[in-house]
Each structure stands twice: as structure tokens, then as C-alpha cells.
Amino acid sequence: MEVVLASAILAIIGGAVSAVMMVACRAIPSGSGGSASAIDLSEVTAQMSLELSLATSFLATDAFYVTFIGPDVDGDGIGDEIVYAFNSVEGTLLRQVAGEYFVWIDGLDDCEFTFVTGTEEVLGQERTVVRSVGFRAQPSDGAEIRGAFFCAAFPEAP
């Protein structure tokens, strides 16, 4: 009787372990790139959201690039110049921080930045400020990703 009960318990445990392993294997992105592109783009979008929300000034804005002073990345206590730029020839999104650049993500068919500006009175003077930055990216093997990042400090527009 004990042997039958122990065998039944082991069968249940073995079935549970198999089910967990099958679910875990399906959660890993495939090597084909479809899921990986979406994951990479969502990470890029999250990083942009953080850095753009902490921007203190914008140096240049265009449909294919944005340059701004963002958070201190290199630890010197001063905000760093950050650039996001789309290279349409190579299909890459570049990121430059404190003078060093690298390919942030590749395999993009299209990428675009948009800006919402407004007017604020700062120290008695009216200034044009950037209220938010929009981002749209179309990977060659996946669905389009969009983001809108609000600038908490309302930095000056170029």
C-alpha cells in the first residue's frame, strides 16, 4: 500500500516538474529575433523614459535625433549630454552619452521623434519649453512600438 501511494506522489511531482520546465522553455525568446526585438525595444523605451523625464535642457531636436542634458551618468556630479539618433541607412538607433556612442538597437525599418512644446514664464521671461517627447520605432521583424515621455522640468527648447 505504501509503495502504491509513494509511486502516485512521485508521478504527481514528476508531472509538475515537467509542466514547469515546459512553461519555462516557452518563456525564453526564440533565436529568430521576433520576440527579442520587442524585448530590446521595450528596454530602450524604458531607458528613454527615465532619461528624458530628467532632462534639464534640450540642445537639438529633429525627427531623427534628439540631444539633451540628462542625468549624471559618469558620476562627476554634472548632468551629461545624451544623444539618441536614428541611422536610416543602417537601420540602427544610436545612443551617445558623455562623448561615447554605441549602437543601442539594430534591425529598424523606421524611427521617429516628435516634440510637444509650450510657453512658460521663467524668471519673468516667456520661454519655449519641451513638454514631452514622442518616440516611434518600427523593427523589421515585429510590431511598431511607441512611447511618449513627459519632461518634468519643462526644459528649454533649442
Supply the key terms.
single chain; 158 residues; alpha+beta; 2 domains; 5-stranded antiparallel sheet; 3-stranded antiparallel sheet; elongated
Question: In words, what does this structure look like?
Answer:
Helices cover 29% and strands 41% of the residues. The chain is an alpha+beta fold. It folds into two domains: 1-30; 33-150, no CATH class. The strands form two sheets. The chain has a five-stranded antiparallel beta sheet, with helices on one face. It has a three-stranded antiparallel beta sheet with strand order 6-7-8, with helices on one face. 16% of the residues are buried. The model is unreliable at 15-36 (pLDDT under 50).
Topology readout:
Blueprint: H1 2-27, H2 34-53, E1 57-61, E2 65-69, E3 81-87, E4 92-97, E5 100-105, E6 108-122, E7 125-139, E8 145-150
Antiparallel strand pairs: 1-2, 2-3, 3-4, 4-5, 6-7, 7-8
Determine the strand fraction and express it as a percent band.
Answer: 35-45%
Query: What's the domain count?
Result: 2
Radius of gyration (CA) equals 23 Å
How far apart, in Å, are the first and last alpha carbons? Answer: 82 Å
What structural category do the secondary elements indicate?
alpha+beta
Shape: elongated
If you average the pLDDT, what whole number results? 78
Our count of helices gives: 2
Report low-confidence residues grouped into runs of 5 or more. Answer: 15-36
**Strand arrangement in the largest pleated sheet:** 1-2-3-4-5
The string of secondary-structure elements, in order, is: HHEEEEEEEE
Query: How would you characterize the largest beta sheet?
Result: 5 strands, antiparallel
Helix content estimate:
25-40%
**Strand tally:** 8
